[in-house]
Design brief:
By secondary structure, the protein is an alpha/beta fold. The protein has helices at residues 22-29, 41-46, 48-53, 78-82, 119-128, 141-148, and strands at residues 2-10, 36-40, 65-69, 89-94, 108-111, 133-137, 154-160, 177-185, 191-198. It binds NADP nicotinamide-adenine-dinucleotide phosphate.
């Protein structure tokens, strides 16, 4: 299985507080044609009002599966996410200690870990189900956890020509050696830099 993470960052390594061309971000992200998009609950919650207000196009049969790490069962917009017109279906990733769901909940679930989702086990289970490519859509806690666990094979950074100055850095834990795969320079000064993670 190939696990890739793409994120937009500033030149000083901050992942928010500047404008991102989302059409370009997702056009580039679509190049991997991932079968599963792995997202954290906080990323979903940050967009929840937009998701709920978006037109319900219905599931896209050929789209990836949206798998959301949600060990505290904080996400409630499952139907709206499924109907956004990008994903084929949604999968809630829970842990043993996740609060009970409503009895009428119909969202598919995968339970791993005790009080937190076991990310390595999730990838193992998805691999057993035939998934070959997973794209992690995170610039924060989920990405850092995946990097700490050596679960990421490829990193693609869309580096924006801006110094944000303050804010959480996307990676601040330990040294990682990377092999440069390629760089594309866009007219507005954004660099798309791709690296393989050396284990
Ligand atoms: N710049 C970019 O390219 C980009 C990309 C994506 C998102 N974002 C932005 O980033 C913000 C959200 O970032 P965030 O860091 O708050 O959230 P996040 O990336 O969504 O990560 C939080 C999720 O990670 C899970 N998690 C964290 N550590 C874990 C571990 N060790 N094991 C298992 N699961 C773990 C949490 O689990 P629990 O369920 O237990 O809480 C939670 O579901 C949003 O504003 C979003 O828009 C930016």
């Amino acid at each position: 299985m190939h696990v890739v993470a793409q994120l937009a960052v500033s030149l000083d390594g901050v992942a928010s507080g500047f404008d991102v061309d989302l059409a370009r971000f997702y056009a580039l992200a679509s190049l991997w044609q991932e079968e599963v998009t792995l997202v954290g609950a906080d990323t979903i919650l940050a967009q929840e009002s937009d998701v709920l207000a978006a037109p319900r196009r219905g599931p896209r049969a050929e789209g990836p599966l949206l798998a959301v790490v949600d060990s505290r069962a904080r996400v409630h917009s499952w139907n709206a996410l499924r109907d956004l017109g990008y994903w084929s279906d949604v999968l809630a990733l829970y842990a043993d200690q996740t609060p009970p769901r409503p009895p009428d909940a119909t969202t598919r679930e995968l339970t791993t870990g005790y009080d937190q989702v076991d990310l390595a086990e999730v990838l193992t289970v998805l691999g057993r189900r035939g998934v070959r490519t997973v794209r992690v859509d995170s610039s924060g806690a989920l990405l850092r956890a995946c990097l700490e666990l050596d679960l990421i094979d490829e990193l693609a950074l869309l580096v924006h020509p801006v110094l944000v100055g303050s804010g959480e850095r996307w990676f601040d834990t330990r040294q990682l050696n990377l092999h440069h795969v390629g760089t594309e320079v866009f007219k507005d000064g954004v660099l798309w830099m791709r690296y393989c993670v050396a284990i």
